Amino acid sequence: MSHRLDPDYEDLRRSVEEFARDTVAPVIGDYYERGEFPYDIVAKMGKMGLFGLPFPEESGGMGGDYFALCLALEELARVDSSVAITLEAGVSLGAMPIHRFGSDEQKKNWLPRLCAGTSLGAFGLTEPGAGSDAGGTRTTARLEGDEWVINGTKSFITNSGTDITALVTVTAVTGQRPDGRPEISAILVPSGTPGFSIGQKYSKVGWRASDTNELVFEDCRVPKANLVGEQGRGYAQFLRILDEGRIAIAALSVGLAQGCVDESLRYANEREAFGRHIGGYQAIQFKIADMEARAYTARLAYYDAAARMLAGEPFKRQAAIAKLVSSNAAMDNARDATQIFGGYGFMNEYPVGRFYRDAKILEIGEGTSEVQRMLIARELGLPA
């Protein structure tokens, strides 16, 4: 075991760190204030190959792995979470279901453009009445001849309404199992399909430079061949996708937590109060020390979960632990950083103001903290 990153990983980390510092940081505050999607930044991320990091070269990817994606997410989130979640959702939720479960034709048609970042994919899972309880899906899809006819509504879907969104993979009830439970399948719906419309754009507390919309399906027809994976396996497929995605969200959370440390250190060495820099006061020192400890231990958690995943070992429990610990660290560090900055921490012009607004969703999205605790308990053998 080594505490050092392999040279290829370290080179990637440094290049994304530089990109985040020199390209994202100077402009993202304006995008955030306007609630505007940063197309130019996303295009540059695509040219860097970030959207293709964990995909094979034959699919248009970079031939890397999921840990490489996590490193990129951490470095982006140290500066801004809106661009980080755009990458995370585009890869983990948009392209990964097609890579993991799609047909050869689906992979050929969609993966090259998704890996290039010229197009984005989305994953339509959450509904107005079915968030953590994804088994309560009410969107339906019935077969009529050689077409699926989809009806329903999806909520809080990232990357779903941009000018470069190419598709959304939708979970829908396609029948009933022998035990009476709904049969849930995943179906690919290209943007612009008649009957598929983008609903309201949400006015969000955080992630304001990312795209999040409601999706509406009204007798939306797509070919039978747009089924992703096996019919009735959509629920199991999305569980696999979310297990992986929790590691990615953990990495993003660590980035935000570390960004709070970075900004607090800088500010503590600049800001003077009562005749000295505030970094000389033990109260501030202890806060920053606790923040660094949280970020450090959370990073170890997601590194471990990613290592287990790449080794082909079970990682569900470790992914849930990483997501729980990292999102808590992000929220706690954002609160402490805002306190260190005082009144300036409440101003949107300072990164910690954005960090504070962005942190809370990390305890909710891609599995709430309560769901993570439930998964950990079950993996320990406690009754469901």
From TrEMBL:
Residues 232-380 form the Acyl-CoA dehydrogenase/oxidase C-terminal domain. It holds the Pfam family Acyl-CoA_dh_N. Residues 7-117 form the Acyl-CoA dehydrogenase/oxidase N-terminal domain. Keywords: FAD, Flavoprotein, Oxidoreductase. Its cofactor is FAD. Residues 122-220 form the Acyl-CoA oxidase/dehydrogenase middle domain. GO terms for molecular function: acyl-CoA dehydrogenase activity; flavin adenine dinucleotide binding. Belongs to the acyl-CoA dehydrogenase family. This is Acyl-CoA dehydrogenase.
